[in-house]
Amino acid sequence: MKKEFSSTLLVLMASGLALTNKASAFAATHSLSPTPLLARNTNNLQAPVAARIIQNQPFHDARLQTYHHGRVGRHQTRLNMALGIRGGAAAIGKTVSDFTSQFGAADPQSLFNSSLVSLALVTIVFKLLQRSTSDGRDAAKAEEKPASIKSLQARFLSVFWLLRCSDWLQGPYFYEVYTSKIFNGVPASMALVSKLFLTGFASRALFGPSVGRASDQYGRKKATLAFCVIYALGALSTKSPLLSVLLLGRVLSGVGTALLFSAPESWLVGAAQKSGDDPDGKYLGETFGMAYAGDAIVAIVAGQLAGLAASRSGPTGPFELSSGFLGVGCLLAALLWKENRSPTADSDGEKPSIADAVQVIRKDPKIALVGAVQSLFEAAMYIFVLQWPPALSSAVATTFGEGASTPYGTVFSCFMAACLLGSTIFGQLAKMNVKTENSAAAMLTVATIAMSVATWSVKAGAGAGVNLAAVVAAFFAFEACVGMYFPSIGTLRSKYVPDSHRSVIMNLFGVPENILVVAVFLSISKLGVVGALSVSTGALGVATLCMWRLLKSISATEVEPRTA
Fold this sequence. Notes:
mainly alpha
């Protein structure tokens, strides 16, 4: 286990070094056109808007909207692969450093365009190394994948990516669609947009456990279909001029978000377990890796589509287009998916309940530890989403001058490229048969270090200028960890969370997550950017300790039979 963890950490550190080389070396290159802004979902509020809501900071660009995956020699192969990545990144960094030294400093757009190209190159190099380290036996094993698993992956991914695209589409124009509303002759205020934002989080925290219980009891397919309908209604509510309808739409969006992040995953795990062709969960991990690697690409495409829809139909255009994707996803799920429910719901006994789910968590510390990792990491991620724009803007202004604007759209694309790299790393480690618990512990360790570096850099630069290279490298490293986190947590939940209460337990752990995010949001005037990032760092640190505790518990369980 220690060897596996060490090799995993080495791969992650090598990737981190590549990102650091890139952030410090790529000071300039030819400028490209900016891409539309998109976001990670925080109930469809992107970070630049959230930062403005919290801190009343004006946007420098009207286009900026809300912001928001042979046994012998195995360890030597991992080492060679990691060193290859490091060496390749160093060579790339040196080349660009020589280039930039000749042409001088450039603007922020050029910097992040270069970063995007570099991240893409690192990911491609990693993919090529991944193929080159695969021997004939790996290829033979790939051919042995059961037909039922291939069919399951195709049916799940086709629906999952459509649903995720519908979610990503709504993020870029959250702010504009609500500020375009007129109430009693007065445009919607920032305070009102803030209330709408909090309504989505509160709705998910309040109704999440109940909709999770309903999903387990009545069926995960039905829950996914319900998500499509509920989320479409929430999206279409943006066309209404009535405040009551808009608030109801935000409530529906919160309920839909709870379903999106539990029902499809629960359906996949239940279907895989029923097939009997994946007893050790190997293909589940592979499926999660494919799902979230593709999700990063879907997010970038959705940003482009949202921009086109808005240019043709105004700020409600992306929400209307989102409803169309939801309709197609709903149709595919209805045709391709077979219903599966909690085993207790299929029996004649007592139906699954929230109280029962709480007792299940209390009886098994491993479930509680996995849930703690979920709550803490995702809370840290959403806090980061709210705080990276002011932190990065300060660093950009310090480096390039007060008049320099931060290209949020290109930065988002860089974040998604880093997520794709993280998902790629997860897939490679899974192929190397590294336990997900070990790779997750390494990932959480790197994430904590990255957020600590970012927090320290912002704090140290408050009076003397923020170190842009340190901030950018830390943010990219954290986003790579985010890309690795989602397939990791999905695999861990499939292993430790019982199918009898899967959806409700997933949503129960979403309650403390949302409470922490809202608490930071309401206290931001006192915390500031540094304080909020410190909370995020602390949450990641505790999540890392929980994962190490889980590893220790697993080790103790494995040793007991040998000492008996």
